[in-house]
Design goal:
By secondary structure, the chain is mainly beta. It has one helix spanning 2-23, and strands at residues 31-39, 49-58, 66-69, 72-78, 95-97, 104-105, 108-109, 112-113, 116-118, 129-134, 138-141, 148-156, 167-174, 181-183, 191-198, 207-210, 215-218.
């Protein structure tokens, strides 16, 4: 009888140990954000409008199957002399968000097609971090790098105030503290994508910047060397 009791106790301990190991299996939560631009010119100038496109997707999700995107963040202009992230150090009133009326998207949420709104619906430069919120979470299955896209317009207002006057640094991504992206295994995803808008350089008197090549060339009817 004693042997049977000991064997039962050993089996109970073994089952508990296996359950503990199962619960200790690794879990991951990966969401992806891509950042691209469309513009009428290769090298914009102050006054030009660009269309920004953010792609939303997922990577591996161990211990789960989907990631819910609750918000996406975009930093209008970042001071390159400081770390670039979400959020970043504002570079001043360099870029203007053109407003929610410019938003288009291909995303679907728990209730079908999605409508995005922001914390700056009418646009502006005063708030640097634009927060795009869908009217229902976007559920993305694991391992789909480009599930859908979100596009909107921005306007270049001025040159950068930092050490890169002819380039504007921008960041798109997801915040962990605000739980912008949460997987169904309980983990929160982080994503940061950094990009740079190269401007037509400022040219000396008598010269102008060619927006296709980004090179200073003589103004028409002048023989000045640039």
């Amino acid at each position: 009888m004693r042997c049977k009791v000991r064997l039962g106790a050993l089996l109970t301990a073994l089952v508990a140990s296996l359950a503990s190991l199962a619960s200790a299996q690794p879990m991951t939560c990966h969401a992806l954000v891509g950042l691209g631009y469309a513009a009428s010119q290769n090298f914009p100038k102050p006054g030009d409008i660009l269309t920004v496109t953010l792609s939303l997707g997922s990577g591996s999700i161990l211990g789960g199957t989907t990631v819910d995107i609750n918000r996406v963040r975009f930093e209008l202009d970042c001071d390159a002399d400081f770390p670039l992230g979400i959020p970043c150090t504002d570079d001043g009133r360099v870029v203007r968000y053109q407003g929610d009326h410019t938003i288009t998207n291909t995303c679907t949420g728990t209730n079908g097609s999605v409508t995005f709104s922001t914390n700056v619906p009418h646009g502006g430069t005063r708030i640097n971090e634009i927060v795009f919120t869908p009217d229902s979470p976007i559920a993305i299955p694991a391992n789909i790098p480009e599930f859908c896209t979100l596009s909107f317009d921005i306007k270049v207002r001025a040159r950068s105030n930092d050490s890169t006057p002819d380039a504007i640094e921008q960041v798109a991504g997801l915040s962990v503290p605000h739980q912008d992206a949460v997987c169904d295994n309980g983990l929160t995803a982080v994503a940061v994508q950094v990009a740079q808008v190269l401007l037509c350089p400022h040219c000396s008197k008598g010269c102008t910047c060619d927006q296709e090549s980004g090179i200073c060339v003589p103004r028409p009817h002048t023989s000045k060397e640039c």
